[in-house]
Amino acid sequence: MRLLRLLPLLMSAVLAVPSLSLAADQYVPLQQRMSPEEFKAAGLDKLSPEELQNLDNWLSGHGKVVTKVVDQAGNPVFYPTKEKAGPVQARLQGEFAGFSGHTEFTLDNGQVWKQADTSRLSCMSSTNPKVTLRRSLMGNWMAAVDGCNDTTSMVRVK
Q1: Is the distance from CB of 127 to CB of 145 less than 8 angstroms?
Q2: Which residues of 56-72 are buried (b: 16+ CB within 10 A; e: fewer)?
Q3: Do 38 and 92 have their domain in common?
Q4: How far is CA 76 from CA 66, 68, 127, in A?
Q5: Buried (b) or exposed (e) across 19-42, using 16+ Cβ within 10 A?
Q6: Are residues 33 and 92 in the same domain?
């Protein structure tokens, strides 16, 4: 008996949930999503009402874009600092004799790394040496190259 009384309430809840998710997916026009300052800074105030409507129509017809993580300079960040990333082990392509303060090298896995500090480190010259890149406690990447007794800070370029 009680279940029969609750049935209309349950049906209302079941019907309301899809409409809530649909409302969350509704497109909101740019002028409503941006402050007047942002709207003007983007140059959208120069558009005619028809041009603005065409832009809104186009944006509403395209799915959400996944934003990549970038640093302050707009360069991609391959491993956000919160993410635990294991060590990278690979081989350097070509000759290696140390770090010059602006060293950049390509690994056999296709990754490109460049020196993040200006330290100069001489190492035993070798061809295609093994390199291990590990996260330090501060979140930097440190490169240890076989035949080199010291490590240096690196950033991933590609």
Answers
A1: no
A2: beeeeeeeeeeeeeeee
A3: no
A4: 13, 7, 30
A5: eeeeeeeeeeebeeeeeeeebeee
A6: no
2 pLDDT more than 70:
no
Give the integer Cα–Cα distance in Å for 154 and 2. Answer: 67
- Higher pLDDT residue, 139 or 92? 92
In a domain, 67, yes or no: no
Reported as a single tens digit per residue, the pLDDT across 106-156 is 899 889 999 888 888 888 888 899 999 888 777 788 888 988 888 888 888
CB 58 within 8 A of CB 85: no
**Token output for 104:** 């950049």
pLDDT digit string, tens, across residues 59-79: 877 665 555 566 777 776 665
Q: Is 82 part of any domain?
A: no
Number of domains in the chain: 2
The pLDDT tens digits of the residues spanning 18-36 come to 444 444 457 788 788 888 8
- Do 51 and 99 belong together in one domain? no
Q: Which domain range does residue 10 map to?
A: 2-60
